[in-house]
Structures are given as structure tokens and as C-alpha cells.
Design brief:
This protein is α/β, with parallel strands linked by helices and about 350 residues long. The chain is built from 13 helices and 9 strands. It folds into 2 domains: about 150 residues, Glucose-6-phosphate isomerase like protein, domain 1 (Rossmann fold, 3-Layer(aba) Sandwich), CATH 3.40.50.10490; about 160 residues, Glucose-6-phosphate isomerase like protein, domain 1 (Rossmann fold). The longest helix is centred in the C-terminal third of the chain and has 22 residues.
Length: about 350
């Protein structure tokens, strides 16, 4: 079915596959110079307040650059901020729509505590506040679902931390990885038949099943992104976890029920710690009666390439799974209904 153009267009009504094909452009995006960014230098810690797709850029940066950052970096998915937030905190207030209620609440707290504030949004109330109160802001391109614009925000966040002198060379590395990814992604396009298309093959193996995605710390954000893409694109229940933590708890939970119907996807990287790679193998051997994982080995020559390649593959696989589920990948009607009823 995935090799029939009419079948794809019947369900992919808003061209989600086309949006996925343009992901590398997000890594190449250049943001205008931001006024007063130098006033944000010298922070003792960083807090990014955001929900959903607006928190994901922080997870990406922590996975990719977290070990290089000279200050603590904390992600807050809540209405309130940690007690330590104060004048020495860089508070990154992130909401793609600019109207996320939890994030607007966090902004008020950051103001009260005198934090150094920078706003990331495509519009909405947050951008209005930034302009009214002269907060530095990075305006994200609009007209996307938040989860489909994550790499724009990753580029904005990487640009910010590099400008502040917290990392070096991140922008050049990111733009080079985007050019490399553009060529790699051709293998997952709709015109490529299933026999030669890894993304379509993965979707066909997963259709009709709840999904668990496992990874090591190097690919932890990619596992999270796959889980979210399965949830929001395919409207398919999915979960994720990562080694070595899962061997201390979730690993044991595979005992029951015996007939669970779960499909496991493992995202592996040659940059994983040797002991993590060994944990994959031992886990699979000990749980061989419970699952036979779909193993994805990341491509590329540097960790960033492994990360963006795997994220791209997951976005395509989840979109093809949506089509096999005979549902439009783009809308998230249940979320919109929830927001309406919450108010």
C-alpha cells in the first residue's frame, strides 16, 4: 500500500511527508541578530521552560552538547520554576505557538525572580510580551505543527548558547550535518519502493502494535522523538526508555503479561559506551522469548549526524505508520479538544 501514490495522498492530506523532507532546511535556517543578547551572558545556570515540541529542543541540546556546557541546564515542563531560579539564571521561555499556558506562567515567575529572560516563539502572546517588555527574543518560522518545527528551535537554541560563549563550533557542525542529511533522506521518500525503503519497512513491521523504543544515552533524545512521532503522527500508543537505567527496573517488567503485543525498536549508535552496547546484546538475549527487536544502527561519522539521521528516519517511519493506520498524520484533534474542554 505504501508504494501506491493514491493511497498515500488519500491520508497525507497536508503533505506531512513533504514537511519531513524539508527537515534539513531547518538546520540551515539563519536567525536574525538578536538585540541585547550580550545582556544574557554570565548566567550560572540555564532553565528552559516549555511543553511538548517546545521542550524538545532542550532535550536535543542536552543529548548533543550537554557534556560540553559549563553550567547546569534544566528543562521545566510545569507552571512553576525550581527554587534556585533567580538573577543568575538564564531563563529560556519556549513556546512555538506563544500561547502555552504553563510556559506563560513560568515566564511570570522568571520575571518575579529577576532571571535573565530570552523568549523563543513563532508568535502569540509570548512574542507580544517580548516586544512590550523589551525581552530578547528569537522568532521561529510559523505555519508548522510544533513537533514538525523542532529543528528550527534546536538551531535557535544552539545559536543562542554559542553566542553566549557556552559552546564553540555548534552552528558550523549543525549546518554541515543538515547538508549531509539532505542526501541521506532521499532513501526514505515516497517514490522509493518498500523493498529499498527502511522507513516504510519499519512502519509495516509496527502497524497494529503498541511500540516501545529503546536507546542508549547518545540516542536518548532520538528515542523520545520517535515515541512522540508515533504518538502524534501515527496516533499510535508508544513509549520509550534508555540504557542503562532500564536494566534496573523496566527490564524486569517484561515478565508479564506474556502476550503483550508490543513491538520493540532499538536505536543504536557506534558512539554508545561499550558497556551500553553490551547491555543491548545481553538484554536481547535474556528477553529473546519476549521480543525480537527492530534494530536501527545510526549512520554518520559524528554524533550529531547519528542523531539527526535517526530522528529523520523516525519521522518518516511514523508518518508512513499514520498512513497505514489510515489517518492524516498532521492534525492532533484530541489535543485541540482537550484544550477546549480544559478552558
Amino acid at each position: 500500500m505504501l508504494d501506491e501514490a493514491d493511497f498515500i495522498t488519500r491520508y497525507d492530506k497536508e503533505d506531512a511527508l513533504g514537511v519531513m523532507g524539508r527537515l534539513p532546511e531547518q538546520l540551515a535556517h539563519t536567525f536574525p541578530e538578536v538585540r541585547d543578547l550580550d545582556s544574557l551572558k554570565g548566567a550560572a545556570n540555564i532553565v528552559l521552560a516549555g511543553m511538548g515540541g517546545s521542550a524538545q529542543p532542550g532535550e536535543f541540546i542536552k543529548t548533543w552538547l550537554g557534556h560540553k556546557l559549563p553550567v547546569p541546564f534544566v528543562i521545566v515542563r510545569d507552571y512553576i520554576l525550581p527554587e534556585f531560579v533567580g538573577p543568575s539564571t538564564l531563563a529560556i521561555i519556549s513556546s512555538y505557538s506563544g500561547n502555552t499556558e504553563e510556559t506563560l506562567s513560568a515566564l511570570k515567575e522568571a520575571e518575579k525572580r529577576g532571571a535573565k529572560i530570552v523568549i523563543m516563539a513563532s508568535g502569540g502572546e509570548l512574542l507580544d510580551i517580548a516586544k512590550e517588555k523589551d525581552f530578547p527574543f528569537m522568532q521561529l518560522p510559523s505555519a508548522y505543527q510544533p513537533r514538525m518545527a523542532v529543528l528550527y528551535a534546536v538551531k535557535a537554541l544552539a545559536s543562542l548558547v554559542e553566542h553566549l560563549g557556552l559552546v564553540d563550533g555548534a552552528i558550523v557542525e549543525m549546518e554541515a550535518a543538515g547538508k549531509w542529511l539532505q542526501a541521506e533522506m532521499q532513501a526514505w521518500a515516497a517514490k522509493v519502493p518498500t523493498a529499498d525503503n527502511q522507513a516504510k519497512q519499519i512502519a509495516q513491521e509496527l502497524v497494529g502494535h503498541p511500540i516501545v523504543v529503546y536507546a542508549g544515552p547518545v540516542m536518548a533524545f532520538a528515542a523520545m522523538k520517535w515515541k512522540i512521532a508515533f504518538n502524534e503522527n501515527a496516533k499510535n500508543i508508544a513509549f520509550y526508555n534508555y540504557f542503562p537505567e532500564l536494566n534496573h527496573n523496566e527490564f524486569i517488567g517484561w515478565g508479564h503479561p506474556e502476550k503483550h503485543g508490543l513491538k520493540v525498536v532499538e536505536l543504536r549508535s557506534s558512539f554508545d559506551h561499550p558497556r551500553v552496547r553490551e547491555r543491548f546484546d545481553v538484554t536481547n538475549r535474556l528477553l529473546s522469548s519476549r521480543f525480537a527487536p527492530i534494530q536501527v544502527e545510526a549512520k554518520g561519522v559524528i554524533p550529531l549526524e547519528h542523531l539527526v539521521w535517526t530522528i529523520g528516519l523516525g519521522e518518516f517511519a511514523a508518518t508512513y505508520l499514520a498512513i497505514l493506520n489510515q489517518i492524516d498524520p498532521t492534525p492532533v484533534d484530541l489535543v485541540e479538544q482537550f484544550k477546549a474542554e480544559l478552558h
